[in-house]
């Protein structure tokens, strides 16, 4: 996708702090970290959002979760972590390329919407 910032990160055309890369996925540090560990894990292939996951492209999602487990181990998140996918307008997705936030080294709040 020509104008997709995460496609450009995956292609190395925009700088990022990568923590993991293989043929299918890239993981890099979020520019505006919301926790001491805040990494985004993306497929290299452009998938716009979780709404676009199909039987044809879903294998990469399983791989992403394998990578998340590996990265979490390497980053010392043995006490747990949170994985978040924001999808669409109500989900407050701001970058239209599928990505999973890996957040850790912080006790998370639950429920996620205490103001409701
Ligand atoms: P979302 O709101 O779920 O779409 O998350 C998009 C995330 O991408 C936000 O947490 C941003 O801080 C992050 N982000 C946007 N541009 C970049 C970039 N160039 N490098 C790293 N993270 C980015
Ligand atoms: Zn893209």
- Number of helices, where a helix is a run of at least 4 consecutive DSSP H or I residues: 2
The sequence of SSEs as H and E is HEEEHEE
The strand line-up of the biggest sheet is 1-2-3-5-4
Question: Roughly what fraction of the amino acids lie in strands?
Answer: 15-25%
Give me the secondary-structure category. Answer: alpha+beta
Bound molecules: adenosine monophosphate, zinc ion
Shape: globular
Radius of gyration: 14 Å
Helical fraction equals 10-25%
Mean pLDDT: 96
Give the strand tally: 5
Straight-line N-to-C gap? 37 Å
Q: Any low-confidence stretches, pLDDT <50, length ≥5? A: none
Q: Could you describe the largest sheet, including whether it forms a barrel?
A: 5 strands, antiparallel
Would you kindly provide a written description of the structure presented here, covering whatever features stand out?
This protein is of the alpha+beta class. Helices cover 19% and strands 22% of the residues. It is built from two helices and five strands, in the order H-E-E-E-H-E-E. The protein has a five-stranded antiparallel β-sheet with strand order 1-2-3-5-4. A hairpin with a 7-residue loop joins strand 2 and strand 3 (37-43). The longest helix is centred in the middle third of the chain and has 16 residues, at 59-74. The termini are far apart. Zinc ion is lined by residues 1, 4, 6-7, 46, 97.
